[in-house]
Every structure is written in structure tokens, then in C-alpha cells.
Specification:
Layout lengths: L31 H17 L4 H12 L5 H8 L12 H8 L3 H9 L7 H29 L2 H15 L4
Helix pairs in contact: 1-5, 2-3, 2-4
Length: 166
């Protein structure tokens, strides 16, 4: 499939997908099963990287200042348990595992996108570039709209102020 060409001067920021806005349908925001599954995946990836649930729990405890045990992590991932992973422990979990997937899941459920520092910088540069182009375009339109007689008068005034002659 061919992509449509961007118009001249248009910046394309297609390096990430924009999540859809959440729909206000009753029950549509229940992500408890997805959170459990995602947490289990994050912990499995940590384990594959050499960090077991005991170590993750200890690091979450250290980073958050709140006790977290391996047994608690097990309960948060169990399908038949009513225990839920505490949101306030999410930054510590990210710090302990280096995995952003649970944060991304929560952000997507809210219609948002998580950008890491490098992505945020690129996005900020893109936004500033678009703003700069918009301002330049507006200045050009204003300059084209100003009658020549007004420009001549303004130029004459500026030259008088700086001591130049016209």
C-alpha cells in the first residue's frame, strides 16, 4: 500500500501510534485483567533478565518506601484474587524492572501516550518546528497585507531613530 505524500512543509510525526480516546461506555475502563496479565509479563521479563520476584519486590520496597513482598506480587498477578497492584507503586516497579509496559497500558487506557525522554525531545523539537513555521507563515502573510505606503513610513521612522537617512 502506498502512503499519501505529505504536503510541502508538513512535518510528519508518525514514529508512534496515537491512542484512541477512551469511550464512556459502562465497564469499558475495567482494565484489571489486563493489568494482571501485563504485570505478570513484566515480572516474567525481569526473571528472564535475571531478576526474580523476590528481587523486584525488594527493589520496589526500597524505591517506594513501602513494603512489597514476592507473595504480594504473586497475589497481584493471580486471576482469582481480589488484590490489586497499587498505582503508587508503579514508578517503583518501572525503576525496579526498567520496563514501562504497565505504565503504557494505563496511559493508553486513558487515551494518552508515554514518551521516554528521547521521544519527548524529538516531539518537542517537532512541535517547536511547526510553531516556527506557523509564525513565519503568519509574518509573511502580514507583510504581504501591509500596504507599501505604510512600510515606507515605518522604514523612514526607524531610519530616523537610528540616525540613518532615506
Amino acid at each position: 500500500m502506498r502512503r499519501a505524500r505529505s504536503s510541502v512543509g508538513q512535518v510528519e510525526l508518525s514514529f508512534f501510534d496515537v491512542p484512541a480516546a477512551p469511550q464512556p461506555v459502562p465497564g469499558s475502563h475495567d482494565i484489571s485483567a489486563a493489568v494482571r496479565e501485563c504485570l505478570a509479563e513484566v515480572l516474567a521479563l525481569a526473571r528472564a533478565g535475571g531478576t526474580d520476584r523476590y528481587a523486584v519486590a525488594a527493589e520496589v520496597s526500597r524505591l517506594s518506601g513501602r513494603d512489597m513482598t514476592k507473595n504480594m506480587l504473586d497475589r497481584y498477578t493471580a486471576a482469582d484474587e481480589d488484590k490489586r497492584f497499587p498505582l503508587e507503586a508503579l514508578p517503583a516497579l518501572v525503576g525496579a524492572t526498567g520496563n514501562f509496559r504497565l505504565l503504557e497500558l494505563v496511559a493508553e487506557a486513558c487515551g494518552c501516550k508515554v514518551l521516554r525522554s528521547e521521544e519527548a525531545w524529538i516531539t518537542e523539537v517537532g512541535a517547536a518546528t511547526l510553531l516556527e513555521r506557523s509564525v513565519r507563515s503568519r509574518i509573511g502573510a502580514l507583510q504581504r497585507a501591509v500596504p507599501d505606503t505604510v512600510l515606507e513610513r515605518l522604514l523612514s521612522e526607524v531610519l530616523k531613530r537610528i540616525g540613518g537617512e532615506r
